[in-house]
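Practice problem: predict the structure.
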Amino acid sequence: MNKLVTVTNKEILSKLKKEDVTKVYPLRFFSVGYNEYFDISEIDDFCLINRILTDDDLDKLDNILKNSNIKGILFDDLGVLDIIKNLNITKIFIGDHINNNASSINYYLDYVDSIVVSSDITYDEIKYITEHVKKDVVIYTFGLKALMYSRRNLLHNYEEYYNLEKDNEMNTSINDKQFKVIESSFGTRIYAYPFYYDERLKKLDHVLYNWYDVNTLDNDKIISVINDDLSGVPVSNIFLNKKTVFKVGDLDAWVTCTRRGFWKNERVKELKS
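Answer:
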């Protein structure tokens, strides 16, 4: 199993270099949701770009990457694809919530080396995808499940309104569901907690990398987790065992939702006709 591990701080680097893993560094000014970022000159493996970019951002990124020694890139904004298409590096499209079926994934695989399969879907759906795509894929195996990203500084606005001490990270809960909120100058990411993980994800075929996104873990726990010792680490398989309620084009799901009062019967009849 090839492991892709996020570098979350400079102190962990010396330990990670002793492990048989591929490192991915959040690129400064182009990533959000972490507590530490890296300049392009510090990156000797893969870089991570996961924030929404403007045209000016893409121009700056183009200049930065031309003079880099990176081996690969994980990116979320499709605008990045145009500036890296001629670079001789491994290109992996994250597509946080859209890489959820084999057809769309195979389309993107015409342009990139691999994609990160969505963690929003069930284990059976993930397994089906790995068996029906034209290239090996990346499986998000461990990490905080990203729920939303805003370019606004939601956390600092909240802290300022309620006269709270300023912090770039907050733990909160709603109806017994736990969340982590992490903010930088480029926006706010909200994650589900505890950590997303399931043993079965490590045993799939046709996988280029298993991604261990060890964000917010302390350094000792990081080494334990990438060596598959999760003792003391709270984990959940979140959606992996929950049947998908609704799929685009699935009229049966529309009927189910209608019976629960989400849509009117007339709308379902219209769709069936």
